[in-house]
Write a structure and sequence with these properties.
This protein is an alpha/beta fold. It contains 16 helices and 19 strands. α2 crosses α5, α6 runs parallel beside α8 and α13 runs parallel beside α16. It is globular.
Amino acid sequence: MSRGTLFDKVWDLHTVGTLPSGQTQLFIGLHLIHEVTSPQAFAMLRERGLKVLFPERTVATVDHIVPTENQARPFVDPLAEEMMLELERNAKDNGIRFYNIGSGSQGIVHVIAPEQGLTQPGMTIACGDSHTSTHGAFGAIAFGIGTSQVRDVLASQTLALAKLKVRKVEVNGTLQPGVYAKDVILHIIRKLGVKGGVGYAYEFAGTTFEQMSMEERMTVCNMSIEGGARCGYVNPDATTFEYLKGRDFSPKGAEWEKAVAWWTSLRSDADAEYDDVVVFDAAEIEPTITWGITPGQGIGVSEVVPTADSLPEEDRAIAQEAYTYMDLAPGTPIAGTKVDVCFIGSCTNGRISDLREAAKVAKGRHVAEGIKAFVVPGSERVKQEAEAEGLDKIFEAAGFEWRNAGCSMCLAMNPDKLVGRQISASSSNRNFKGRQGSSSGRTLLMSPAMVAAAAVTGHVTDVRTLL
């Protein structure tokens, strides 16, 4: 029974039935696939003699294994080439729309779907990638799924899921200059914990989110999963509709007006019932950085690495592990921490607005000596737009490498990897041990503007001093 939240309304509209397990069989409106989690799923279909049930509801691209420098085929990495060939074959055999390299629309799956208007309010969306929560920025309910679930969606266009509780995460007020959406979500995860959202969908509400652009909302929803929430969303509003209007797959003409009326009706009711409500003040948020090995180990740029005794008891063991792995001493300021590699990109922060903010910092400055800094647009369209604005020239003049679209060093399933104990200032979403391609490499998560500030100074720097 709906309790008046967008989550409940969308869930109820997509419920096919209740399974004997008590789970809901949920219809999936849009299925996004890429080269890493789909080959095994297609193989399972072939074994059973099954076809893709709704190929028109499935969209494919390549992102994880794509080299961002040399994209000549066959790829240098034979495994990457094999995955690429497999996706090309599966898309062709099943009549699936596929955005390949050079199509002009290839890119990170969570960047291309919104920019083309494939992602719309009121949808259920699934993808074999944990950061599918990104699409919740539009008022969609979007889940990251595993390979066997990718098979289920290909075969039946449904998923078996337990219904989530809903927590309203309210942030009110105006962010200070130099504080971005990335800082907001890192602050929320720091306060609620990496397991705080387990069993929940997060509804992001309050004046701070109302003031955000769609790309900023996507950054916040993208990292809901890092706080343990299965999905995160923002209620659709005029900002959402303005972003979607005129995009490739958005409704047109009279259908547009109808769509906007329907999308508006899905917003959480004023008297909606939530399982929990938490409230934050935007004025308290400063540029935020992770110092440890989980996205919850974050601090403001003016703070020191926390001492174990200043942390809740349950967080102390992982803090000790983080001090050793990161080689950061408790009680030392995070500002001034030396970095080796600076990466701007990913499904969290590889959109045009992210690149514009980083370019403001890079303009007229130069990457510090001994620092490798590179910028990876989130899609071929973002790359084209950035080049039309001259952002590539700003970055190159400042000593950054300008790359092709892909996931790149976010998870390093491609040639972009940390080496040895290198420490990276990264605009991506995970700072787990070994995440960026080296089993001993270290990651500091921060906003793209903060990464640019680290690149030009050679160490963690409060971007506000450079703006």
